[in-house]
Amino acid sequence: MTATERLHSSTHGPCARPVQLAGTEFDASTGERLGRKTVERRCGSRLASQCPSCSALYAADARALIRAGLTDPDTGRPLPATFVTLTAPGASVFGQVHSQRRSGGKRGKVRTCRCGRRHRDGDPLLGLPLDEASYRYDLAAAYNAAAGRLAAVTWQKLGRVLGERLRVVRVMEYQARGLVHVHALVIGTVSQADLDLVVSGGTNPRTGRRIAPVRHGRWNWGPRCHARPVRTGHADRLGAYMSKVTAYAVKAAGEDRPSGGFAEKMARAGAAACRCSHPRPDCCDGERTSILTAADGNPVTVVWQSRPSQVPCRRHKLARRGWGYRGHVFASSRNWGTTFGELRAKRAAWAAGRQAGASTPTVVLWEPPQYRTDRPGPGAAWSLDSVRKVVTPGPTGTATGTDGRAPDGAQWPATAGPDPRRP
Asked: What residue spans define the domains of the chain?
C-alpha cells in the first residue's frame, strides 16, 4: 500500500486538501539515483471547516492523550483527578449580553432575559450584546489575548500552594458571548478552598503567607470558578467530554455568526489587540496596504511595498481568527502521560509496518515548496512570475527595475525557485 493509498484509506476518511510533495529518490547504500517520487500527506488542519478528516484525527489524538494521563502506566488503574473550570469576568467589565438563565439548574425553568424575552436553545440572539454601542469589544479581545498566559500563571500559583508540580491538560472553549474560559483536568486532589485561595487571594494555610489574587496584566478570573473531584470510574466520561469540547473549539471563532455583525467586530478588535514584539515593523496590524499606491509610480517601489512588511503577520491572523486569543485550544503540561508527537510517531510506525514487502532502504531529497500565484492577496505568497510583471532580471541575476536600479538590499532570484520574498 502506497503512502497516497494509506492517506485516502484512513479510518476518518480522506484528507480534504492533501499536500503533494515531490522529490528525488536515491539508494541509501550506493547513492544511485532511482528516479522521481511523488507522495501526498495530510494537511494536518485542526479546523473542521477546512478538513473534517484531519480535524477528527486530531480529536482522536486528544482523546488518547487525555486517557493516557488519567491512568497509572504501571498498574493501569485510574488516577485521582480534579475537574477545574475557570471563567471570564462578568458583564460589569464588558457589558450586558442576551443570556439564557435557568432557575434550579440546567433543567430548570428558563428565566426572562434583560431584554424581556425568554431565549430558547439555539436562539441566534444568545451571546450578542444588549447595547452594541456601549459593549466593550476592545476589552473582550484584550481579555482573550491574555487568557492563555493567565491560565499558565494560575497553574504555577496553584502548584506552589499545593507544594507539588501539577499535571494538567486543558482546553479553551468559547462562550456564546465570544469570551474564552478554561476546562482542565488536574491529576491529584484540588479542593474548592485551594482554588478560591489562588483566584481570590488569601492566606496559605500550609505556609501562613499572604497570597495575592492570580492576575496577568489587568485581568483576573470571574466569580464562577470551581473545582470538582473526578469520581472513580468517571474519568473516561470526563475525558470524552473534554475531547468533545476540543472538537467544538477547533472551529474558527464565530463561524456560526453572520458576517459583518458581532463576529466581524470581535475579529477587528482581536487584530487591534495584538501587539508584535519584532525590532522592526513586520506587518500592517491586520490591514493590507495597496501595492498599487506607490509615491512615484516606480515599478520597483511597487514590488518593494508588497514585501511581507506590508501584509498581516501570522500573529495578527491568529488574533483575528481567534477574536484576540492566539494560543493553542488544547494543551497539556510536559509531565503529562504522553504527547501528540509520540502518538503521531506510533501511528506512523504502524502505517509503515503495514506496507507490504521489504523494500531497499532509500533516501528522498524533497524539493522546497513552489509558490505560484498570479494575483497575490492578503497572506498569499509571491511567485517569481508575478514579480517579473513589474521588474526585469538584470545582468548579474539581481531583480532590477525599468531604470536599472535595484531596491535597497533586495536580491531577488533570477530563476524559478522558492518563495522570492525570502532573501
From this structure: 1-73+337-367, 77-252
- Closest Cα to residue 20, out of 53, 54, 2, 43? 43
94-145 pLDDT, tens digit each:
998 888 888 776 677 888 888 888 888 878 888 888 888 888 988 988 999 9
**Backbone phi, psi, residue 44, to 5°:** 75, 15
C-alpha cell at 41: 500527506
Answer for the pair 301, 293: CB distance below 8 angstroms, yes or no.
no
52-69 and 340-353 helices, crossing angle to 10°: 110
Within 8 A by CB and 6+ apart from 142, the residues are 219, 273, 324
DSSP tag of 309 = G
pLDDT digits (tens, 9 = 90+) for 64-83: 888 888 888 888 788 888 99
Task: Quote the CA–CA distance of 60 and 243 in Å, as a whole number.
Answer: 8
For 136-161, write each residue's pLDDT tens digit: 988 988 999 999 999 999 999 999 99
